[in-house]
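Model the whole thing, not chain by chain.
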Amino acid sequence: MNPIVSGASVIAAGLAIGLAAIGPGIGQGTAAAQAVEGLARQPEAEGKIRGTLLLSLAFMESLTIYGLVVALCLLFANPFAG
Amino acid sequence: MPWKLIKLPEGELAAPTNDINTTAALSLLTSISYFYGGLKVKGLGFFARYIAPVPIFLPINILEDFTKPLSLSFRLFGNILADEIVVSVLCLLVPLLVPLPVMVLGLFASSVQALVFSTLSAAYIAECVE
């Protein structure tokens, strides 16, 4: 593979997953904080709060997964190789 | 001494959803389901949802028809494949006890993803059938 292409792909893969982890990380932290606050206010709503929290965390996680898929595609199924 | 307690079957033991084709097929199934459900219940009035709530939303609603199966498939594929890659790399490096916590995390994450996929599919179908 062209060395410029492979070098650029590696840098791009690193940047993709690195930057993709920032936003959802902040968002998930905020969501968990609010969930814990709600739990502190109403401990008997634990089941609902936990269910809603897990669902929301999965949604935010999917944004990081998009970045991960781009990184994996660049590393293992690079369309610019050859 | 029977050092090998169980005999592993021939072939691959990994999850089938570590391939984008499987997850894409599943999410296209969801897509087809909500189209079919909407058309069956509402007939041709189903297409009124493209200009709801305001007609300026038309391109966004059309795009949503493409991003829904895309996000569903990518979410499931990424989660399953990421855990499998981490487990295989750890098994390559330190096969003894270190991959175990990652495997447990993978169990938890995959069950969450199953919940999310089914909840989202149900929500999409319900949104089109309402």
